[in-house]
Write a structure and sequence with these properties.
heterodimer; A: 82 residues; mainly beta; Folate-binding fold; 4-stranded antiparallel sheet; 32% strand; B: 402 residues; alpha+beta; FAD/NAD(P)-binding domain; D-Amino Acid Oxidase, Chain A, domain 2; 2 domains; 8-stranded mixed sheet; 10 helices; 19 strands; 29% helix
Chain lengths: 82, 402
């Protein structure tokens, strides 16, 4: 079974209909503007566990929305779960 | 009991020492190769390799074992050609049968634009030492009679770049040969002993924390696959790495011999035949970052659909086994190896979908870096600092997996 992404508009659909986006933030401790830009351009937290990320329903309603997904299991975290 | 197993039983497994000159995190291909070349080329044997699972249990055992050097930028062609050369001599050097077999790789073009790209690639590869030529459909058919040159009417084969040194080897034999070679010379390999943290002394990394206590180290090398961002963060190093799954599968036994490795970057798949006669297929990484080893049915479905355009005989085969590895993808599709900017902490990562072929060269160059304290010329372009210097090594097309 492939990963199904819950689109708030169209319901759960195969991951192949979507484009993965992410929420980019440079860490607080980086204060130098050059370092912040470098971090935003290239660096990743690469988190293990539940993350909030953006998905774009490219082959559907073409909306951006947020989803909670656990990167260690590659399963959607339902609202109410941690 | 076979000869291979008997030899493993003679290896000495010692408890970890309190201190090592070099601590390597991860006993996969790259970690073990680094230990092996430290011991054989530089006489540095006070080395401890720490592995959370067993030897080769991570991505070294989850890849598609393809060895080739037909990359897209000069620095990469030189580096991977070094690896191809080292692989060719590795059986003789270690005295172990690695099932290394040169089959040649055909990288097919289905459009004029792709044919132009493959022509360019053949020229560039040859210029920088990796023998490659552009061949027309007739030669493609000679090299691989099973290919449907019409591509099911949709993906005609207009030609291919042919890299005769393309090869495969048996992954577990490679890691064990390197482990044995290193251990025979005094290197300690510790299985089932995860590194839980790094010991920092001021700004310097001075050792690692394990369940067996703190281990001091002159230098710590991260050869971790999959969880490298977490380890690097302990030393305050941010990495441009995102970890994605990569799946592959094999079919049941195909009676005929299937000679070369075939790849198509327009259809996004590659295929080769294993020593057991199975057809092995792989494709691109999953789009979303993930550390999961879960495989999915839709992957098999998609890859089969693409493969059948060119290899219609495969419709008579069945899928036997499927597996997943996790790939540390760098933004420019080139590896990241060398110093990290933190004293006492080196890294070899960003091996994405191109790690197996680079095992000997990656290990050799990391060993040289540690032994001499200077970044070897061959890997200087692949340092972590290249992102800050705006010198990325963009080579996406050569990965063939994205």
């Amino acid at each position: 079974m492939s990963l199904r992404i819950p689109c708030p508009n169209c319901g759960a659909r195969s991951v192949h209909e979507f484009v993965h986006g992410e929420i980019r933030r440079a860490p607080e401790h980086l204060t130098d503007p050059d370092e912040r830009n470098l971090d935003l351009a290239f660096m990743h937290d690469n988190p293990e566990g539940p993350v909030t990320e953006r998905w774009f329903h490219a082959q559907g309603c073409r909306r951006w929305f947020e989803v909670r997904r656990d990167t260690t299991t590659d399963r959607i975290v339902e609202p109410g779960e941690s | 009991m076979n000869e291979f197993v008997e030899r493993q039983m003679k290896l000495t497994w010692r408890p970890p020492k309190k201190a090592y000159d070099v601590v390597i995190v991860g006993a996969g291909g790259h970690g073990l190769a680094t230990a092996y070349y430290l011991a054989t080329r530089h006489g540095i044997t006070n080395v401890g390799v720490f592995e959370r699972g067993y030897i080769g249990s991570g991505n070294s055992g989850r890849n598609t074992t393809i060895i080739r050097a037909n990359y897209g930028i000069p620095a990469a062609v030189r580096f991977y050609q070094r690896s191809v050369d080292l692989y060719r001599g590795l059986e003789e050097e270690t005295g172990r049968w690695l099932m290394h077999q040169e089959k040649g790789i055909l990288w097919m073009a289905h459009s004029e634009a792709a044919a132009r790209t493959e022509r360019m690639r053949a020229k560039l590869n040859t210029e920088f030492g990796a023998e490659t030529e552009f061949v027309g459909p007739r030669r493609v058919q000679e090299l691989c009679p099973q290919l449907d040159l019409d591509g099911g009417g949709r993906w005609p084969v207009l030609g291919a770049s042919y890299h005769p040194q393309g090869a495969t080897a048996r992954h577990d034999r490679v890691v064990w040969a390197l482990a044995e070679g290193a251990m025979e010379r005094g290197v300690d390999v510790h299985q089932n002993l995860p590194v839980e943290g790094l010991i920092l002394e001021g700004d310097r990394v001075a050792g690692v924390r394990t369940a067996a206590g703190d281990i001091a180290a002159g230098v710590v090398v991260s050869a971790v696959g999959g969880h490298v961002s977490r380890l690097a963060a302990m030393a305050g190093v941010r990495l441009p790495i995102r970890t994605h799954r990569l799946q592959a599968f094999v079919t049941n036994h195909y009676r005929q011999q299937f000679g070369p490795i075939v790849a198509s970057s327009e259809l996004f798949f590659y295929a080769s035949q294993t020593a057991r006669g199975e057809m092995l297929l792989g494709a691109e990484v999953d789009p979303q970052p993930s550390f999961s080893y879960r495989s999915s049915h839709d992957f098999v479905q998609q890859v089969c659909r693409r493969a059948l355009y060119l290899l219609p005989f495969m419709s008579g085969l069945r899928v036997l086994r499927q597996w997943t590895g996790v790939c540390d993808m760098s933004p420019d599709y080139s590896p990241i190896l060398g110093p990290t900017g933190v004293d006492g902490f080196c890294i070899t990562t960003g091996w994405g979908t191109w790690g197996f072929k680079a095992i000997p060269a990656g290990g050799e160059q990391m060993a040289k870096l540690i032994a001499t304290g200077e970044v070897p010329e061959l890997i200087a372009p692949f340092g972590l600092d290249r992102f800050a210097r705006d010198r990325t090594m963009a080579d996406r097309a050569s990965a063939g997996t994205h």
